[in-house]
UniProtKB/TrEMBL annotation:
Keyword line: Hydrolase, Signal
Organism lineage string: Bacteria, Bacillati, Actinomycetota, Actinomycetes, Kitasatosporales
SUPFAM superfamilies per UniProt: alpha/beta-Hydrolases
PANTHER family for the chain: HYDROLASE, PUTATIVE (AFU_ORTHOLOGUE AFUA_2G14860)-RELATED, MONOACYLGLYCEROL LIPASE
Protein name (database record): Alpha/beta fold hydrolase
Gene3D superfamilies named among the record's database cross-references: alpha/beta hydrolase
Amino acid sequence: MINRRSFSKALGVGTGAAAVSLAGLRAASAASTVPTVTPGAHAAFPQLKQIRAGLLDVGYAELGPAHGPVVICLHGWPYDIHSYVDVAPLLAEQGYRVIVPYLRGHGTTRFLSDRTFRNAQQSAIALDVIALMDALKIERAVLAGFDWGSRTADIVAALWPERCKALVSVSGYLVTNLEANLKPLSPQAEHAWWYQYYFSTERGRLAMEDKTLRHDLTRLVWDTVSPTWDFDDATFERTAAAFDNPDYAAVVIHNYRWRLGLADGERRYDGFEKRLAARPVIEVPTLTLDAERDPFTAPGDGASYRDRFTGAYEHRTLPGIGHNVPQEAPTAFAQAVIDVHHLLDK
């Protein structure tokens, strides 16, 4: 929570930090309205940072006052930290310390050892976030994400609630159940997942290792899952540069094959995966977002996952928005982060 001490430390960072009320988080979350920003208003982050955390040397962007309440924003596939290039400044101007890391296999994040298995099962990625928080000496943070980022944030909130102050999760509860994933979905839903099955083949793996084919495949995904987003070529190319990471293909292929039971995880994560298979509830304050034009958004306005959130809760649907919610609707996403703090008082 923003208290008088952290507020005073935030002074001098900028007018945005001073906008946080001295009355503390309750007043700020109840009254703060994020200024509207046009998607694409920002093209880049300030200079990136690197830190050793767990198995990785993590590349990340950081904005906002050093002593502000922490928000960790987690990207998905095929995306990178630029999904939050407009969100992060909005939150920093409200006095938050915003951390946006490259996930394993993306951008400037690297494995510390060549001998480490390029594993992308869900609990391994979640533990990367815990390791990053430990390395940065962050005890608790608001976690916010979409796609892989939603799943990762959900898992941290479910298994380590003491590290998660509150949660913003696009598409709600995305914890993978391997047994359930063996069952077919409706043909329309299966169609949206075409690349998941492509990656199950050797041809799909080779395509991800080929820079030109990888570029064209990921661009096709952007076009199809965000049908109303009018982004330009430069916006895509900024993110596509993160796919040149030497471990990108291995991480992506393992993630999707593991989900379908076609690739093994590591035994050291078995205990976590067993707990996740039981679909644990999330007790921390949560705000879920559904994107109306996202082909992966489940019908029912969040009803399919409502029972997984047992704490203070709010749900919103974003009309006309596709899969990459923070980049397509940065104002709404940043507002959700601020508003989820208000749920702490309910």
